[in-house]
């Protein structure tokens, strides 16, 4: 399987461990990733909140670049990037006037024909295929994982649509396939507060705190995520959350690709396990998983 890889801004800056672990896990699964040359920012929240044309034109420009790469489509890891690229495809397919404006903005007509896949969708499919267990180098037996999809990854259904919007299961199935135990909990699609961290941080501390408390009460050793902003709110701000709530959490928050990469035999350095504020290494060692 060969995909045009769109890392987006986060995977080359604040979420480098997500980018590195995506590449390492993909290699272990036999997925070939070729980075899209000349890709640009998807616009993320600022663009679609302020300028609809820009929010479509930016991802459309990148999708045009991927169009000639002769792959099975674009593979995206960031939940926000995934949503924006999928939304751009939907917009130019369903709105002729928007398609015309986008063509004028980027200098070429784009019809929304490049398939966009989230890494979780692609990797979970391979996990379910015969022969997958032969690729597993390190069983994660005993590790209890709270799979956190967040509010964006599988919503809105008409844009995302690769898993159930209210009770998604693909990350849980991936976790189980590598020998770990997905825990049952209430908060798997709750919002962490997202970019309100910059304008109303108290809301983020409360919402993210409720998610972490639920994970801990459910017996999870760590939380698995698929969004750089979710990871930042739950991990980077966890000390502030503890102070805000007057509680002790100490819940590691890792990317699902880091969990899969561990199973594929990737090293701690390749996965960026040393970049987290709340280190997952002590929990892994407690469960007999040495990295």
The side-by-side strand order for the widest beta sheet comes to 2-1-3-4
Shape: globular
N/C terminus separation: 28 Å
The CATH architecture of the largest domain comes to: 3-Layer(aba) Sandwich
Number of strands: 8
Name of the CATH first level of the largest domain: Alpha Beta
Point out poorly predicted stretches.
none
Mean pLDDT: 95
| Domains, number | 2
CATH-assigned fold name of the largest domain: Rossmann fold
Structural classification: alpha/beta
Helicity level: 40-55%
Counted by DSSP, the helix tally is 13
Order of helices and strands: EHEHHEHHEHEHEHEHHEHHH
Largest sheet: 4 strands, parallel
Strand content: 5-15%
Radius of gyration: 19 Å
If you had to describe this structure to a student in words, what would you say it looks like?
The strands form two sheets. The chain has a four-stranded parallel β-sheet with strand order 2-1-3-4, with helices on both faces. The chain is globular. It has two domains: 2-119, Glutathione S-transferase Yfyf (Class Pi), Chain A, domain 2 (Up-down Bundle); 138-286, 3-Layer(aba) Sandwich (Rossmann fold). Helix 1 (16-29) crosses helix 11 and helix 8 packs across helix 10. By secondary structure, the protein is an alpha/beta fold. The protein has 13 helices and eight strands.
